[in-house]
Amino acid sequence: MTKSPELTQLLDELRDAGITDKRVLHAIERVPRELFVPAAFRERAYENVALPIGHSQTISQPYIVAVMTAALDVSDRHIVLEIGTGSGYQSAVLARLARRVFTVERHSAMVKVAEDRFKQMRLHNVTTRFGDGTKGWPEQPTFDRIMITAAAATIPDALIESLADDGVLVAPVGEAKKDQTLMRIQRSGETFTTEDLGIVRFVPLVAGLPRSAGR
C-alpha cells in the first residue's frame, strides 16, 4: 500500500502526540479512513479530527482511536467486543490486530454500511450485530478485550461481566455533553483495576433501540 502525503502526515502527528505502539500505527496505516467518512468530508479524511457520519454520530479523531486501541493492548490471540460500530473505522483497525472482532450497533442503517465496508476491505474476522450494545453479546460468554465507543455514567453490568479474567476494557465514562474520563479497566479474578487515560468527549451510550429500528 502506497502511503499518501496526507496519511504520512497523520502518522507523523500521531507519533508526535505520543503514540509509539508500532502495531497500532501500522493498523491505522492499513485502514483507508476515506472509506469510512461521507463523501462530503472525504478531503478531510486524514485530518486529526472527528467528523460527522450521520445519525448524530461521529467517526472518532484518529488520535483517540490510536489511544484507545493502544490501551486495549490487542494481540492476534484476542477476541474483542466493540460497542458502537458507527462507521466501522475503529472496528477495522481492531480487526487488523485481533483474532476476531464482534461489534454491536443500534442503528441498522449504519450496520449495513459498515458491513459493506468490511467486505470491500476483505475483513473476514469481523462479525456485526444490530442491537442494544448495553446488553453485550449474550451468545459469547466472555471477551478478552472490550471497547466501548460511547459514554455512559457507569459501565453496564452486562459488559463488566463479559470481561474475561486478565481481560481489558476501555471506555469513556461520564455524562453526555460534558467532559468524560477515558478509563482502562483490567480484570484479575474478581478484582478490577482502573486507570485514568485522560479527558475525552463522546456521544452518549444509549440503551434500547431507535423507534424506527428494523433491518
What does this entry look like structurally?
This protein is an alpha/beta fold. It has a single domain (5-200), classed as Rossmann fold. Helices cover 27% and strands 27% of the residues. It has 6 helices and 9 strands; from the N terminus they run H-H-E-E-H-E-H-E-H-E-E-H-E-E-E. The chain has helices at 5-16, 22-29, 62-72, 89-95, 108-121, 157-161, and strands at residues 51-54, 57-59, 79-83, 100-105, 126-130, 143-148, 163-173, 180-188, 191-200. The strands form 2 sheets. It has a 7-stranded mixed beta sheet. Helix 4 links the parallel strand 3 (79-83) and strand 4 (100-105). The chain starts with a helix and ends in a 15-residue tail after the last strand.
Give the arrangement of secondary structure elements.
Blueprint (H helix, E strand, L loop, with lengths): L4 H12 L5 H8 L21 E4 L2 E3 L2 H11 L6 E5 L5 H7 L4 E6 L2 H14 L4 E5 L12 E6 L8 H5 L1 E11 L6 E9 L2 E10 L15
Parallel strand pairs: 3-4, 3-6, 4-5, 6-7
Antiparallel strand pairs: 1-2, 7-8, 8-9
